[in-house]
Amino acid sequence: MSSKIKIIDIAERTGLSTTTVSRVLTGKAKQYRIGKRSQQIIEEVAKELNYIPNHFAATLKSGKTNTISLIVPTLGNPFFANIASLINNEVRKLGYTLIISDSNEDIETEILEIQQLVSRNVEGFIIIPSGENFEHIEQIYSQGLPLVLLDRYFENSNLPYISTDNYQGAITATKYLIEHGHTSIACIQGVKSSTPNKMRIKGFKHAMQEEGLTNIHVIGDDFSVQNGYQETKLLLRWKERPTAIFALSNTITMGCLKALKEENIKVPDDISIITFDDHLYLDFLETPITCIAQPVEHICKIGLKYLFSKLNNELELITDHVMLRPDLKIRNSVKKMS
Amino acid sequence: MSSKIKIIDIAERTGLSTTTVSRVLTGKAKQYRIGKRSQQIIEEVAKELNYIPNHFAATLKSGKTNTISLIVPTLGNPFFANIASLINNEVRKLGYTLIISDSNEDIETEILEIQQLVSRNVEGFIIIPSGENFEHIEQIYSQGLPLVLLDRYFENSNLPYISTDNYQGAITATKYLIEHGHTSIACIQGVKSSTPNKMRIKGFKHAMQEEGLTNIHVIGDDFSVQNGYQETKLLLRWKERPTAIFALSNTITMGCLKALKEENIKVPDDISIITFDDHLYLDFLETPITCIAQPVEHICKIGLKYLFSKLNNELELITDHVMLRPDLKIRNSVKKMS
DNA sequence: AATATTTGAACAAACGTTTGTTCAAATGAA
DNA sequence: TTCATTTGAACAAACGTTTGTTCAAATATT
Fold first, then answer.
1. Of A58, A215, A223, B318, which has the maximum CB count within 10 A?
2. Residue B228 belongs to what domain range?
3. What's the number of domains chain A is made of?
4. Nearest Cα to B146, choosing from B160, B128, B134, B165?
5. What CATH number does the domain containing A21 carry?
6. How far is the CA of A66 from the C1' of C18 (A)?
7. Which tens digits make up the pLDDT trace of A146-193?
């Protein structure tokens, strides 16, 4: 580790003070009336020595990090990875640095992660939470840290969020199935405690009941391929096999397809599928899958807009709770029953 | 922003010095013979006040961050997102923090990103580089920063890397096509300057020539869906249409499939496909796609092992350049020509 | 009882910046 | 020439930890 170049090295080299060097290098030359010549020579020497400022010293003194953080449940899920990529690009454009964290769908890890980020003086948080607890989030929020939840949120908390109207989305999906003559529908859910899941289940049940359907099946308990696979395997053994599956995420659908393939059940001839979340590949599958697509780009953009307006203390009256309408994308995975 | 709790607050509350508090809170109590009672009361008060150490102050003094960083070209590509997720979990187990950065496939961003990370005293780098330049990487490497490249590397540099044997992989794929009677093969490549791409092209050409095939088509220039789509659209207009496509990444394949679907060309009846990179969905496509699968988990694990042995100054004689064998996963996208 | 050793904890100096304030020199005005 | 103003830059005190060293009290040894 070659001994690093410090401001004082530049000061000595140029015969100027650390104060002056610091002010030039942080772009405050005009403000403090540093001479043109001094500016120039400082910049030259800094470049020549390949000076990289010590972020820790700077932050310790100034308190400013220009950094915000994004916590996602797992980057293994393309839905979240995609969000991470989108947000990363936007944040950079705004002159901030983004620290991306993967909480591994584990609340303890999430809590730890938040602690570390706070101790790193992160100035704002974008969180897709991993559990049903939110005390740790409310704690930092109440300390005044700008913060916004994406996708997942909490009903009995008023932490700000941008999400999809999962309730409506589920109703749309369910009604679509019912309109196509399906009355026996198995809904494979994700993490029971997560709000999106709750809302989707609520929408599903509501739509079923409204149509007078009482035979309601909700199964499963995880947004994973594994869960989709297992539950599908099981439901194929029911004495009265459902005619349609409503999968509550793209990962669950992936598992469904795996199980169906193994059992040689054809979509949509033998069973129909509709899923939450869109993805490019859904269009190229053996049977393109009809889905409820979330407006991911919008969620990200609005989330960032919200966060930065907080960050800049803009007092615009933006609502703290935003629900965006999902889209029904009709493809070929739902059969019209006669 | 409520004024944060500092070590001195705990010191005052407990009647002890900041020195003692610091030593207890960083687990050096035994080493410095702090009394049991003192330890206990300090820990109690720290918890009670919800003390979060100021990472910047600590690092500034100690120089230790326990942080390593991962730079990927884009999290939008599941291949990289997957790597990020895998590495994140492993790193955490090792008691380190991982900062994940997305360079957006842009070398300037990558350079900036590395600068920021260096100024954050990151102790090690895992990089999947985005361009053909590597001076900036060699610079930090020569400063003694532990570093390893994953997947992509540079031929005329001896930066350490863990990668797939892309040359062999391409030969395997090409021979597989040739064995199935294909002689007119279009190879859709990714970023020309990237080493994996170069090696794959080299393998492709080598295998073709070895079989006496001189009609070699290499087209395209990006690891993107867009590129796969456009090039496929174009090649379908050739007067002599190739009987097989060798796509050099999963994203390119995605674009291929989109184009083929639009033109109503069936795989493998009308055209065969083989691709680099495996993914769960490849199995569920209309035609499951035969692929050259990279040993991603191994790449990550070996990469981390390498990095941490450097980090801990273990002088084990580990090679700096590791090439792992890819696997041919045979599915249904290649037709036997008669 | 006198000396040596152990135990427990504090002093004070870093770490590399940023920043409110002061100060001298140069310039302009009268 | 004298006083006021502008210009350019330095002083020195933070920021919140960590850590080499010192020191007093308590205990053990002779």
1. A223
2. 166-293
3. 3
4. B160
5. 1.10.260.40
6. 15
7. 999 999 999 889 999 999 999 999 999 999 999 999 999 999 999 898
